[in-house]
Design brief:
alpha/beta, globular, 10% strand, binds magnesium ion, binds xylulose-1,5-bisphosphate, 11 helices
């Protein structure tokens, strides 16, 4: 019996990386007078490192000889990240990034069927609130019983810590839940916690290795914006709660 759905945020609920996080990082670099700039291509490579602070630290260590020797590097990264978070939230407040096709429909369906909802993400909690409030309205945060985010666990994805945290907070076994992810790092984390995982890939992750996934889709889809993978393989236009039950139970 499926009791809960656990959603990743970036790349899964919304396409936030290319025109959201990346832009906010670049703004912060400029605001701090750094000559760093992450192109769409460079950012795609940097996504191998999860977490904004960890991503910047990796970048400076491999790309900027002068800055990496700074005694206050950790402090700089912390300040840059706080600025980046402010930029990202501001960006979402002014120009909300829409949820991916089928997300709101599936959330509504799940709630109507009393499936419990949670979030498991590496991103900062403020970013999750800004995304959900702008895309779904102020009440939508309450739809999620647990929001596991950011530095709340010692190790970010691909470690399974955040999923273990969410399962423990919900008092549920992995066998009763389904995870939704978009990336290799994401599925490594969810499978690490023994969760059946459905993948909706995106431009940055379509070539990732999704071994172990219960289903790999281009998107969840809607009647007027079908999932091409579902249409080809299952003759269905979009992913429903019933399909998920059949697939993973
Ligand atoms: C998302 C991330 C995040 C964001 C940036 O991974 O890696 O780090 O890119 O967010 P996932 P912060 O979708 O697997 O959770 O800057 O707030 O860390
Ligand atoms: Mg993701």
């Amino acid at each position: 019996m499926i009791k809960a759905f656990i959603f990743d945020v970036d790349g899964t609920l919304a396409d936030t990386e290319r025109h959201g996080h990346r832009v906010a990082f670049n703004q912060a670099f400029e605001q701090f007078g750094l000559d760093w700039h992450w192109s769409e291509e460079t950012y795609g490579e940097l996504l191998a490192v999860t977490g904004g602070k960890e991503r910047m630290l990796h970048y400076v260590q491999s790309h900027d000889k002068a800055e990496r020797q700074r005694a206050d590097l950790q402090d700089l990264i912390k300040q840059l990240h706080a600025q980046k978070t402010r930029n990202y939230v501001e960006l979402l407040n002014h120009n909300a990034i829409p949820l991916r096709p089928g997300i709101q429909r599936l959330l509504d369906e799940a709630r109507a069927q009393e499936i419990r909802l949670a979030i498991a993400t590496t991103t900062t909690p403020d970013n999750v609130s800004a995304l959900l409030e702008n895309a779904l309205g102020a009440d939508s945060l309450d739809w999620f019983e647990v929001i596991g985010a950011g530095d709340i666990v010692p190790h970010k994805k691909p470690a399974a810590d955040i999923y273990f945290y969410v399962l423990q907070e919900m008092g549920l076994d992995a066998a009763d839940c389904v995870a939704f992810e978009d990336s290799r790092n994401g599925i490594l984390a969810s499978l690490g916690a023994d969760l059946s995982t459905i993948i909706t890939y995106n431009g940055y992750t379509e070539q990732d290795d999704f071994s172990g996934a219960s289903l790999v889709l281009d998107q969840m889809g809607e009647a007027d914006n079908p999932s091409l993978v579902l249409r080809q393989s299952y003759q269905q236009d979009y992913l429903t709660v019933d399909m998920i039950r059949q697939m993973v139970q």
